[in-house]
Amino acid sequence: MNMVLLGNLSLAAAFAASLLAMMLLLTGLMRNDLRCIESGRRFLAGVAVFTSMAALALSRLFMTDAFQVEYVASYSDRALPLFYKATSFWAGQKGSLLFWAWVLSLYIALVTWNTRRETRQKNTPYIYLVLAAILGFFLLLLNTVSSPFTLLSFTPPDGQGLNPMLQNPGMIFHPPTLFLGYIGFTIPFAYAVAAMISGRLDPGWLRKTRRWNILSWIFLTIGIILGGQWAYVELGWGGFWAWDPVENASFIPWLVSTAFIHTAIIQERRNIMRVWNMALIVLTFLTCIFGTYLVRSGVLQSVHDFGATGLGGFFLVFLLVTGIGSTILIAESYSQLRTRHSLESLLSRESTFLFNNVILLAIAFSTLFGTVFPLISEMVTGRKLTVGEPFFNQVNTPLFLLLLLLTGLCPLIGWRRASADNLKKNFLFPATLAIAGAMVLFGTGVREFYPLAAFSLALFVSATILGEFAAGARARKRLTGENLLVALPRVLWKLRRRYGGYVVHFGMVLMVIGITGATAFKQEKEATLQRGEAMTIGDYRLRYTDFRSFQDRNRTVYAATLDVTRQGRPAGRMTTERRYYINAEQPTTEVSLRISAREDLYLTMPTIGSNNEITIRAAINPLLVWGWVGGGLMVLGGIMAIIPSRRRRPTP
Amino acid sequence: MTPAIIRYGLIFALVLSLQAGTASALTRTEVEKHLICSACPGEALNIDRCSGGDSMRAEIDRRLARGQDLQTILDFFVGQFGEDILTVPPRKGFNLVAWAAPFVILLIGLAVATIFIHRWNAAGRRETSGRDRPGAPPDPALRRRVEEELDRMEDAT
Questions:
Q1: Are residues B32 and B80 located together in one domain of the fold?
Q2: What is the mean pLDDT of residues A331-349?
Q3: Tell me, what's the ipTM?
Q4: Which end of chain B has fewer CB atoms surrounding its CB within 10 Å, N or C?
Q5: A386, B20: Cβ pair inside 8 Å?
Q6: Do A362 and B105 touch (CB under 8 A)?
Q7: Spatial distance between the Cα atoms of A402 and A414, rounded to a whole number of angstroms
Q8: Alpha-carbon distance A19 to nearest alpha carbon in chain B (angstroms)
């Protein structure tokens, strides 16, 4: 079967189905005709069938080396391993866009299934309508300016191949997980807009979208962590986060959605902050689209080589229409959204959540402002500056420390009202531990303010979280008489929504420890070695023992082996490589890593001399592994928080 | 349990301090982070790996070997290539907006949040006093039941 034809027809059918769905839904709403709304729902769900067919067609084209297709020829070649051929699907922007539309249509199909008995409700048709419009936008782009099925005027004998940097498992899963996050926030956005249009502004929309929010947040977190991991193990510059515009584009929605997840809890409990939450979910969606605009427009220079794709204008228009439309809706719904807020005390968990929101949004703002400042500067002064890593580190570090402090304070302060006695009792142990830790660190040579503050606050937050865990286990022990070791996992499972949140916070603490260790106490050294020579870094001695070259599938590999000793004792052997890929102009450096709980030993080989003498760049990144463990815990905590509870049967 | 936690906390702090004991002097990467590659506009030197960047890296190494500090090395490159070579906008002129804006926004946000919390708290006090005025002081047993109910609600989330 002709896969190009199938792909094109499927995309056209998907777009037609989304348009038809919109028309039917609008007609149904205007005539108050349930049959039209039901038909619209079915057409909307049906889009997923066509987008799935288009996705299958593109996959098949990659697997069969169909180089007459421009997109396949640009991102694959015959020598590319099968796994990477399959995942080249989203290596470029056209495939990414199809992936986006495909996943969004699947999400929408799930929503239409879950709400199949709710079509009579006033807000449901509007949810469908918003979703159909957003999906229609992506399908319009795919059918007009960004089709992955465009044919070349000739069939090249081989493709240009996949960028070697992208031939890494971390990079393979990094874009789709980020997309899953971005796309997921479309659902709560649609519910929020539908609530405002229909006037059904009770917290029902929040409850129904809670899992979508957290699931999208989890995917965004995984995507960001995988991106950092990829940069660390693949790019060879020894870092994991460079505050590049495209990295920032993923971090900003993460910050805003984190703020939203926190205040959504307050609305669920107290039905307050309704305007604020509406604004936050709109902002989350807009920042997701803004990130996509940044990546696709080429307005900012980035290490992510997407360049100007011609889609920037479309995304800008979409962003403006969505932004202005949402703002008008919030303004019009303001009087209905506004509630009588009352707090029993100045010091309550509600107030700490609000301050936490302010800090998260301030970090989001500083990241956004720093990212676009080169454009602003060019407009005002005519000079296009570059705003890089040190700027973001200097501006955001104090804000992150404030956030960390609040993360520790929050569990100590009860909902509604914190009594002075309670606060004193809860505060004493963590504060003492943090101060003692700071004194020990200071006494043993840590004199810089930021590392000292970060480690002390990490101790403070850990103590408050451990205190919460211990209190929960003790309470269960009192109730059930269970052993503490039995009571702890049971209470964690029973109250997993609450403790999932604490696990996320503890993950964040570990991440702070890892990042602080690896940035404040990093050591590095570069040396050129002849075979048999050695270099030292920290406690390590690295002796260059072997050099070999060989052909491995689509690349020629030059590998140097070094024997490692630590404090005089053998500590294994490390091999670092330079790879020359077919179809790639630049060689890549393959990082060699020796990971321990204490530190990472990180080796790369920037150059190889004519007599096989090698230049080794070595770095010691203390405590970094805890950052990755922390990232894993953040994801685990998020998953804990969305596992549904078994519904209680009503007692007769 | 508490002394044990303190003990482990102190051990942890000690481990961190041992790491900290190896805190390094100015490294080439630290300097690279502040500079753009002269051959690849927009790309920070610590990420760039082109030959144009290599000559800058060699210059940094030479200056680090002479014991120069970060600012002296950066001043040298600014003299060579102008301020556009920096990844950190100098704190002067219009650039001050970039440095100040995040903190101004933070202060405004904190001020607004504080005002809102005060207003909500005042409304809460009014509601409480409004409820309390007509009748006798709340029954202690009833208050205890309400507190217990609130505790249970908190446990459920």
A1: yes
A2: 80
A3: 0.82
A4: N
A5: no
A6: yes
A7: 20
A8: 42
**Interface test with chain B among A241, A272, A354, A405, by most B beta carbons within 10 Å:** A354
Query: Residue A136: what pLDDT?
Result: 97
pLDDT in tens, A182-191: 999 999 999 9
Instruction: With respect to residue B5, please indicate whether it lies within any of the assigned structural domains.
Output: no
A640 within domain boundaries = no
For residue A126, give its domain range.
Answer: 1-162
Are A446 and B18 within 8 A, CB to CB?
A: no
Query: How many Cβ pairs within 8 Å bridge chains A and B?
Result: 226
Residue of A nearest to B37 (CA): A386
Judge contact between A183 and A107, C-beta under 8 A: yes
Measure CB to CB from residue A415 to each of B44, B106, B154 and give the nearest one.
B154
Clarify whether residues A494 and A435 are in a common domain. yes
Q: What is the CATH number of the domain that holds A15?
A: 1.20.120
Domain stop point among A496, A518, A540: A518
Work out the minimum CA distance from A355 to partner chain B, whole angstroms.
7
Min Cα–Cα distance to chain B from A235, Å: 8
Name the phi and psi angles at B86, rounded to 5: -90, 145
DSSP result, A545-610: EEEEEEEETTEEEEEEEEEEEETTEEEEEEEEEEEEETT-SS-EEEPEEEE-SSEEEEEEEEEE-T
Are B121 and B151 in the same domain? Answer: yes
Query: Are residue A528 and residue A513 in the same domain, yes or no?
Result: no
Report whether A606 contacts A103 (CB < 8 A).
Answer: no
- Most confident range (mean pLDDT) of A98-107, A239-248, A446-455, B92-101 is A98-107
- What domain range is B151 assigned to? 106-155
- Write out chain A residues lying below 8 Å of B5, CB-based: 429, 433, 463, 466
B11 belongs to a structural domain: no
Considering chain B, what is the average pLDDT of its residues?
76
pLDDT of A103 over the 90 cut? yes
**How close A224 comes to chain B (CA, Å)?**
18
Total number of domains in chain B: 2
Q: What is the layout of strands, in order, in the sheet containing A540-552?
A: A534-537, A540-552, A555-566, A569-581, A588-590
Test the B interface: residue of A372, A381, A391, A509 with most B CBs within 10 Å = A391
Which of A168-177, A270-279, B129-138 is predicted most confidently?
A270-279
Q: Is the pLDDT of residue A207 over 90?
A: no
Contact of A495 with A472, CB cutoff 8 Å: yes
* Same-domain pairing of A359 and A429: no
- Give the residue from chain B lying closest to A442, CA to CA: B17
Q: What mean pLDDT do residues B65-75 have?
A: 92
Interchain contact, A623 vs B121, CB within 8 Å: no
- Is A636 within the bounds of a domain? no
A629 domain-assigned: no
Q: Is residue A411 part of a domain?
A: no
Amino acid at A217: W
Of the listed ranges A70-84, A202-216, A391-405, A576-590, the one predicted with least confidence: A576-590
pLDDT number for residue A278? 93
3 state DSSP class of A151: strand
Are A325 and A185 within one domain? yes
Considering the domain architecture, whether residues A328 and A426 belong to the same structural domain is answered as: no
Residue of chain A minimizing CA distance to B25: A523
In this prediction the pTM is 0.88
List of chain A residues whose C-beta atoms are within 8 Å of the C-beta of residue B61: 526
Over residues B36-51, the pLDDT tens digits come to 988 887 788 888 777 7
Residue among A444, A500, A458, A542 nearest A645 (CA): A500
Residue count of chain A, please give it: 652
